[in-house]
From TrEMBL:
One of its GO terms (biological process) is UDP-N-acetylglucosamine biosynthetic process. Keywords: Acyltransferase, Transferase. Its EC number is 2.3.1.4. Residues 22-167 form the N-acetyltransferase domain. The chain holds residues 68 to 234 of 235 of the full protein. This is Glucosamine 6-phosphate N-acetyltransferase. Belongs to the acetyltransferase family. GNA1 subfamily. It catalyses: D-glucosamine 6-phosphate + acetyl-CoA = N-acetyl-D-glucosamine 6-phosphate + CoA + H(+). It comes from Brachionus calyciflorus. It is an enzyme of class 2 (transferase).
Length: 167
């Protein structure tokens, strides 16, 4: 099931064949070599991140057990990661020691738009967040993408403001 799919990033079997040479799977430690940072550069500034930096951060995320669920689509024909979405699972004291999810860093390679890959990643990680027992999930997006996310039940909450301080 979706949760089992996202739990391990090492098993060879741990993928879903989408046809068209595309597979859905968790991010792997060797995805630096499959253009993962290049994919992320379509979203925002990535800075100087070499393979060693990538692997170190990957290991740190793995060590934070059950916290980072990074779901990707790979084009196996050219061995490129072409879409990615991260679910961050945050444990809390409130809401009966509940938990919430955050969706981060959704990106689809420009050459792979229009294939509903964003919908696929959202569907999978929404299900994972429900299995994890999150009482809510949230995300931030620019104006033009609001309609897209509203289709998945996300909405601007009355009286809630998203505040941000940048450094
Ligand atoms: C978008 C992303 C957010 C990402 C940010 C990067 C989604 C749903 N939202 O808001 O996760 O971290 O862009 O922009 O993917 P920044 O580099 O300006 O913070």
């Amino acid at each position: 099931d979706k949760f089992e799919l996202m739990k391990s990033s090492h098993s060879q079997e741990n993928l879903v064949d989408l046809g068209d040479d595309l597979v859905l799977r968790p991010l792997k430690r060797d995805d630096f070599g499959r253009s993962y940072m290049n994919l992320l550069s379509h979203l925002t500034e990535i800075g100087d991140v070499n393979q060693q930096d990538y692997e170190k951060r990957f290991d740190q995320m793995k060590q934070a057990d059950n916290t980072y669920f990074i779901c990707v689509v790979e084009d196996v024909k050219n061995q490129k990661v072409v879409a990615s979405l991260t679910l961050v699972y945050e444990q809390k004291f409130i809401r009966h020691t509940g938990s919430r999810g955050r969706f981060e860093d959704m990106v689809v390679d420009v050459d792979y738009r229009g294939k509903k890959l964003s919908k696929l990643l959202l569907d999978v990680l929404i299900q994972v967040s429900q299995i994890l027992g999150c009482y809510k999930i949230s995300l931030e997006c620019k104006d033009p993408l609001r309609k897209h996310y509203e289709q998945f039940g996300f909405c601007l909450e009355q009286g809630q403001n998203y505040l941000c301080r940048r450094f």
